[in-house]
Amino acid sequence: MLKNHDHIKLLQQNLSLNEDMQAYQGLYDIFFNRLKIFCFSLVKSNEAAEEIVSDVFIKLWQIRGRLMEVDNLVVYLYTIAKNFSFNYITKNYKHPVINLDKIDIESVISLDSPEELCISADLVNAIHQAIRQLPPQCRLIFQMVKEDGLKYKEVAEILHISVLTVRNQVAIATRKIAETLPAYISAGFVKTRNAGHS
User: Fold this and answer.
1) Which CATH code is given to the segment(s) 5-92?
2) Which of 148, 173, 193 is nearest to 39 (CA)?
3) Residues contacting 46, CB < 8 A, separation 6+
């Protein structure tokens, strides 16, 4: 889950006003892996995802003096990462598709909370299989909310869709995954960490 927004805002301010390298490193530590997973979902290459996120941070450094104009740094960084990923796809794929409904999203969802660790390997496979069967956009939205801890409003801004669409897609994903699970587990799994993230 992402650290709280106040902490991110403070780092953003220190980087913008003081060119503080520790603040820059702090933002890098918070976002690098999250953004890499997000980019990997789109470009399906670890190397390319790392390169794209490095470019995102180069961009962040270049515009550091104007960072205080950025209202929500989380949305801003994810949006740059998405745009850079789409640029990469356009340049490197023979038949580029940059419509989220058509891209084959590579889902990277880890089941790592204590309750989820108690479930069997078969069940984990069943969950991953259920996630893989979701439509691409639904899969990406579910990952951004469940894995990255983004709010519905943030996901909506990044993907240029309505908050209602995000809410509906998370509900669909949760329902489909719950259908895969035995009833005694689904009750716990469905209560995702993001229930209050409207």
Assistant:
1) 1.10.1740
2) 148
3) 36, 40
Helices 21-43 and 5-18, interaxial angle, to 10°? 120
User: Chain-centre distance of CA 83, in angstroms?
Assistant: 14
Q: What was the pLDDT predicted at 98?
A: 53
pLDDT at 128: 77
Average pLDDT over residues 54-60: 96
Architecture of domain 114-190: Orthogonal Bundle (1.10)
For 81-106, the pLDDT digits (tens) are 999 999 998 888 776 555 555 555 55
If we measure between CA atoms, which residue out of 170, 161, 176 comes closest to residue 196? 170
Q: Which of 40, 84, 37, 39 is nearest to 58 (CA)?
A: 84
The pTM is what? 0.74
Tell me the average pLDDT of the chain.
81
Residue 54 tokens read as: 């490095």
110/56: higher pLDDT: 56
Q: Name which of 100, 101, 194 is nearest 148 in CA terms.
A: 194
